[in-house]
C-alpha cells in the first residue's frame, strides 16, 4: 500500500468511537506507515495503548489529549521501540502503572530490519492470555498472539467488540516475522486464533482500521501459504540462498523493504525445516 500524502494528523486527538480515540506519533517510515497510533480507551479514566516512541512532541500531544483525566493503565502490545519507550516518561507524568506484555530484549549479532527492542520497558503488571484490565465503562482483555514477537499481545475491548492488534494484523502491510524471536508457526497459529473470534473491528498500531477483520485474516493466512508454496517451487528448480529468493518473490516491492522480506522468508524456511520439507547447508537451502 502506498503511504498517503502528507500532511498526516500527527499529534491530533481523533475520537473514532465513543470509547476510543487515537493520537498519531511523528515517526513515519517504510516500516511504520504514517507512524505509531497510540490509542486512548475510556472516558473518565483511560487506558493508553502503545504509547509509542519517547519523543517530546508525541509525549506533549499525549499529555494534552489526556487532559485532567486519570490514566488507569499504560498498556503495551510488545516492546519494539516504536511502541513502548514512551511508557516510562508517561507513567512519570500520570502516575499510571505500566501493564501488558512481558519484557523482552533480544541479544543477537544478526542485523535487524525491524525496530529493535526497548531495553527500558519495565511493566508493573504482565497480563497473561485471558487476563483483563478494567476501568470505568471499559474492559480490555489480553489475547496472546506470538509470532511477530514472542511477547506480543492484542487487547480486546469487550464493550464495543474492537480489537487492538498492535503489529500482529495491520491493514496496510503484512507483519514482519524476524527470527530468532519471531516465529512463523506461532504467527500462523495466532492468525488462526483471531480468525476464530468474532471481533467487530481491528485497530492496528500502524495504518487504517480493519473493518472486515476475518476477511483480512483469512487473506493473510492465504498469503503466507502462497509464499511457502512459492519457496517450494523456487527451491525445486534449484538450491538457493535467501538473497536469491527475495528478488524473485518480491519483484515490484520497494527494495528498501527487501531486507525485511528476507527475514520473513527465513522465518518460513525455518518453519519448513522443522517440518522436514527443506534443508540447509551454510546459506544454501534445498528442497527435500
Stretches where pLDDT is under 50 for at least 5 consecutive residues are 109-113
Categorize the overall geometry.
Answer: elongated
Ends distance: 35 Å
Strand content: 15-25%
What would the CATH topology of the largest domain be?
Metallo-beta-lactamase, Chain A
How many helices?
6
Helix content: 25-40%
Task: Name a few traits of the molecule.
single chain; 288 residues; alpha/beta; Metallo-beta-lactamase, Chain A; Arc Repressor Mutant, subunit A; seven-stranded mixed β-sheet; five-stranded mixed β-sheet; Metallo-B-lactamas; Sec-metab_biosynth-thioest; Beta-lactamase
Structural overview:
By secondary structure, this protein is of the alpha/beta class. It has 2 domains: 13-221, 4-Layer Sandwich (Metallo-beta-lactamase, Chain A), CATH 3.60.15; 223-287, Arc Repressor Mutant, subunit A (Orthogonal Bundle), CATH 1.10.10. Helices cover 28% and strands 24% of the residues. It has 6 helices and 15 strands. It has a 7-stranded mixed sheet with strand order 1-2-3-4-5-6-7, covered by helices on one side. Strand 8 (132-135) and strand 9 (138-144) form a beta hairpin. The longest helix is centred in the last third of the chain and has 25 residues, at 213-237. The protein is elongated, with a radius of gyration of 19 Å. The model is unreliable at 109-113 (pLDDT under 50). InterPro entries: LACTB2_WH (IPR041516), Metallo-B-lactamas (IPR001279), RibonucZ/Hydroxyglut_hydro (IPR036866), Sec-metab_biosynth-thioest (IPR050662), WH-like_DNA-bd_sf (IPR036388). Residues 35-206 form the Metallo-beta-lactamase domain. It holds the Pfam family Lactamase_B.
Amino acid at each position: 500500500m502506498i503511504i498517503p500524502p502528507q500532511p498526516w494528523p500527527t499529534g491530533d486527538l481523533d475520537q473514532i468511537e465513543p470509547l476510543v480515540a487515537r493520537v498519531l506519533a511523528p515517526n513515519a517510515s517504510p516500516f511504520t506507515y504514517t507512524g505509531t497510533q497510540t490509542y486512548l480507551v475510556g472516558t473518565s479514566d483511560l487506558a493508553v495503548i502503545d504509547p509509542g516512541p519517547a519523543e517530546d512532541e508525541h509525549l506533549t500531544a499525549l499529555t494534552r489529549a489526556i487532559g485532567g483525566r486519570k490514566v488507569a493503565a499504560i498498556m503495551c502490545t510488545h516492546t519494539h521501540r516504536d511502541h513502548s519507550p514512551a511508557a516510562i516518561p508517561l507513567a512519570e507524568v500520570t502516575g499510571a502503572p505500566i501493564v501488558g506484555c512481558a519484557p523482552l530484549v533480544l541479544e543477537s549479532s544478526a542485523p535487524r530490519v525491524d525496530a529493535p527492542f526497548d531495553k527500558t520497558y519495565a511493566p508493573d503488571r504482565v497480563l497473561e492470555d485471558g487476563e483483563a484490565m478494567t476501568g470505568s465503562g471499559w474492559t480490555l482483555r489480553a489475547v496472546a498472539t506470538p509470532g511477530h514477537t514472542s511477547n506480543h499481545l492484542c487487547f480486546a475491548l469487550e464493550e464495543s467488540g474492537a480489537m487492538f492488534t498492535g503489529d500482529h494484523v495491520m491493514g496496510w502491510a503484512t507483519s514482519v516475522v524476524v527470527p530468532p524471536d519471531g516465529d512463523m508457526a506461532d504467527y500462523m497459529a495466532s492468525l488462526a486464533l483471531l480468525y476464530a473470534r468474532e471481533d467487530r473491528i481491528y485497530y492496528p498500531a500502524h495504518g487504517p482500521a480493519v473493518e472486515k477483520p476475518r476477511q483480512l485474516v483469512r487473506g493473510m493466512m492465504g498469503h503466507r501459504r502462497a509464499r511457502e508454496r512459492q519457496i517450494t517451487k523456487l527451491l525445486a528448480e534449484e538450491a538457493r540462498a535467501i538473497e536469491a529468493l527475495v528478488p524473485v518473490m518480491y519483484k515490484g516491492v520497494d527494495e528498501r523493504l527487501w531486507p525485511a522480506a528476507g527475514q520473513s522468508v527465513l522465518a518460513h524456511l525455518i518453519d519448513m525445516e522443522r517440518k522436514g520439507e527443506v534443508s540447509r547447508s551454510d546459506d544454501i537451502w534445498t528442497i527435500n
